[in-house]
Amino acid sequence: MEKHYYQPEIETMPVEKIKEHQSQCLVKQVRHVWDNVPYCRKKMEDAGVRPEDIHGIEDLHKLPFVTKDDLREAYPYGLLAKPLADCVRIQSTSGTTGRRVVAFYTQHDLDLWEDCCARAIVAAGGSREDVVHVSYGYGLFTGGPGLNGGSHKVGCLTIPMSSGNTERQIQFMTDLGSTILCCTPSYAAYLGETIVEKGLKDEIKLKAGIFGAEAWTEEMRRDIEEKLGIKAYDIYGLTEISGPGVAFECEEQNGMHINEDHFIAEIIDPKTGEVLPEGEKGELVFTSITKEAFPLLRYRTKDLCVLSRKPCSCGRTHIRMRKPMGRSDDMLIIRGVNVFPSQIETVLLNAGMTPNYQIIVDRKNNTDTFDINVEMSQEMFSDNMAEVSNREKELVASLKGMLGIQAKVHLVAPKSITRSEGKAVRVIDKRKLYE
Amino acid sequence: MSVKQISVFIENKSGGLAAITDELAAEGINLRALSMADNADFGILRLIVDDVFKAGNVLKDHGHVYTITDVIAVAAEDRPGSVAKIISILAREDISLDYTYAFFQKKAGLACMIIRVADMDKAVKLLGKNGIRTLSEEELTMV
């Protein structure tokens, strides 16, 4: 099969060359931050590091981390490294937790971000012949603007749908022959379900989808691929580092290539901050080495994952990250046990059920209560109460096997759990209300 | 001989049953019999209707989860012991009931029992051998 890359010389660059490039950029970037960001300069001084100490990527570990708390403290301009007059765009995080984070971009920053998204589109089989249907939200959220820009760079016909209005989404998809869908995985699953229900699967021309901005599982991937008749590609990113496209999947669907010419990835022990060797699981840390306006050095993502330098048959040489098993932010601690919502999704899909669930955690009499609402599905239903009860018990047992603690499962009416057209609300943690 | 029963999932909250019966009524579906099995969270509404396929489509359009099952319908005379006789015929052969419910037809002077067992064929044959007639779809509609 012929290989396609958006920037072949960069994407297939020998690893040694990548490291050389990273070292050169890092030295420059540290100097740029030191000279222009007093907040970070002070942090470096406190840590006893100066730009002269950084000779290449081998010295990266000497730099102090940047955390979400730093972003909040320095809001809005404290981490800006360029005059505002040089900036052309801001984007902002969805603000589900705490204060919003605002990131700034120069034209150069937008270009490199869009290049990253363009690489993801080409890796998903995209070319100028394609019709790219972008159902990520547009606006402050990076999803829509990022993929939109990448799609333009590849030269695809771009439909800036944004999220919501499912009827219209499907109509455009059938009328305009969309071939590549970009949205959150939960919305892709919902679109797939609706398309199958309406019997329109043969009317759509989709061949691939690029899904990110949420943690999702392999089971969910298979579900989406089957319902939409496509190959589903993962994409990873975060506003703090640029947006979607920090890493993307190739046709191997076996980990996402990190765009190492722009971002250095490290895995650290989240407790001690020590850098862990390749292949070990820990917290992902990124350093932006080419961005001008908002260059973060050693930003702690709170995403838990594993990196792999193993050669990939797609020909890309950039290091791969495994799908994060969840943001450490998403992790719930219930009765002292770590629970990731994605584990529940895995159990439901393995049981042949729709991945529609909502976790409700509360605290009563100083004990955590853990309830999961699960939508009743055709597979689970029967005219016989004993059979349904048995299936419910099996589900409770599988959940307990996966999570290590007992959850109370409630079977609720189909489609009664609010569907996400942006990001899914999977968790209602009422305990936080009292803290 | 067996008849079709349609069973629907209902979440245990107020208005759940009314929503379904309203949806069926709006499409002119006539309910012949109704029974409900429930626990704390949800219920299974079992219905015998005059047009099971149409009812299925109505439920599907409204996004319900449902299933269509074969059940046995037998007519019992309106006098003491007639139901007991039917039950004991099945019990003697160790055929246990998944569930059963009954309704009374004043005009025909008959009690009609709906029975669901695991081995339907065996139960129908056994009842026939003992002179208990199972009703067809048409007969049930005319009862």
Radius of gyration of chain B: 16 Å
Largest sheet of chain A: 9 strands, mixed
Our estimate of the beta-strand percent of chain A is: 15-25%
Number of strands of chain B: 6
Going across the major beta sheet of chain A, what is the strand order? 4-3-5-6-7-8-9-14-13
The helicity of chain A comes to 25-40%
Shape by Cα distribution of chain B: globular
Per CATH, the class of the largest domain in chain A reads Alpha Beta
Q: Classify the secondary structure makeup of chain B into a structural class.
A: alpha+beta
Number of domain units of chain B? 2
**Low-confidence runs of at least 5 consecutive residues of chain A:** none
CATH homology group of the largest domain in chain B: VC0802-like
The CATH superfamily of the largest domain in chain A turns out to be ANL, N-terminal domain
Order of helices and strands of chain B: EHEEHEHEEHH
CATH architecture of the largest domain in chain A: 3-Layer(aba) Sandwich
Q: Residue share in helices of chain B?
A: 25-40%
Radius of gyration of chain A: 22 Å
Sheet with most strands of chain B: 6 strands, antiparallel
Can you offer a commentary on this structure?
The complex is a heterodimer of chains A (435) and B (143). Chain A has 11 helices and 20 strands. Chain A is of the alpha/beta class and 435 residues long. Chain A has 2 domains: 1-325, Rossmann fold (3-Layer(aba) Sandwich); 332-433, ANL, C-terminal domain (GMP Synthetase, Chain A, domain 3), CATH 3.30.300. In chain A, β18, α11 and β19 form a beta-alpha-beta unit. In chain A, α2 (15-36) packs across α3, α5 (107-123) crosses α6 (143-154) and α10 (341-350) crosses α11 (385-403). The longest helix of chain A has 22 residues, at 15-36. Chain A is globular. The termini of chain A are far apart. Chain B folds into 2 domains: 3-69, VC0802-like (2-Layer Sandwich); 70-142, 2-Layer Sandwich (VC0802-like), CATH 3.30.2130.10. A 6-stranded antiparallel sheet of chain B has the order 2-3-1-4-6-5. The longest helix of chain B has 11 residues, at 16-26. The model of chain B has no long low-confidence stretch (mean pLDDT 89).
